[in-house]
Design brief:
alpha/beta, seven-stranded parallel beta sheet, 7 strands, binds NADP nicotinamide-adenine-dinucleotide phosphate
Length: 195
């Protein structure tokens, strides 16, 4: 498969490149790194990326720093703008534009996170966007044509050594691989390490 890894130079992205490039042709995308540079907050930039890539089989969005972490007492409207532009509209843009280029039976795997289920005092400008991404995939997937699939990976905080409620980038990357290589659609792959 020809797979776009959007955010390939990030913590999860690097692991994903390692795991997927064993079996697939990987196109690495970053804002300023990778085979192709693109910014998912910029519509023209994403159109240019898809024009460069041409037809493809799967996209995993693992772009990071996609929302703000701010103490709840210091929240202002501007702190929500980052999540709206990146985690929410950036990922929706990748799907809506990508549908024009993706092959039959292709897949999109987006990123959310467990904070909408386990919020904390710093997560209020982040967690609602996770809920949006989860619901976007769950509700849109059944209506996609040509057997195209749409899933989300929802991870707990990523650390170097997994402990209760924390996961490694390697563990998280495996969920994107499962979503990409499997046949499930409309699912949120939860990797929370809570047992
Ligand atoms: N880290 C965690 O603890 C954690 C927990 C739960 C969920 N998640 C989610 O998992 C995903 C991956 O997280 P991560 O920690 O691996 O991220 P990360 O290391 O911060 O990812 C950095 C990557 O994202 C790219 N990027 C950032 N902004 C971009 C933009 N506007 N357009 C295009 N590319 C952009 C960077 O490009 P350049 O290399 O060019 O700068 C880089 O390749 C995110 O959606 C995050 O919300 C993370």
């Amino acid at each position: 498969m020809k797979i776009i890894i959007f955010g390939a130079n990030g913590r999860v992205g690097k692991e994903l490149v390692t795991q997927l490039s064993e079996r697939h042709q990987v196109v690495k995308v970053g804002r300023s790194s990778g085979d192709i540079q693109a910014d998912y907050t910029d519509h023209q930039s994403i159109t240019n990326m898809y024009n460069q890539v041409g037809s493809f089989d799967a996209l995993c969005c693992v772009a990071g720093r996609d929302s703000d972490f701010v103490d709840v007492q210091k929240l202002e409207l501007q702190h929500f703008k980052s999540g709206v532009e990146r985690k929410l509209l950036g990922q929706v843009r990748l799907v809506l534009e990508g549908l024009k280029y993706i092959n039959d039976k292709g897949s999109f795997t987006l990123s959310s996170g467990y904070l909408n289920h386990y919020p904390n005092v710093y997560s209020i400008a982040t967690s609602p966007f996770n809920a949006f991404v989860d619901n976007f995939a769950e509700s849109m997937a059944p209506y996609l044509l040509r057997d195209i699939r749409l899933n989300v990976v929802s991870a707990a905080p990523i650390v170097d050594e997994a402990k209760y409620g924390q996961v490694t980038a390697e563990m998280v990357a495996r969920e994107y691989v499962k979503s990409t290589e499997g046949n499930i659609s409309g699912s949120v792959f939860k990797i929370w390490n809570m047992e």
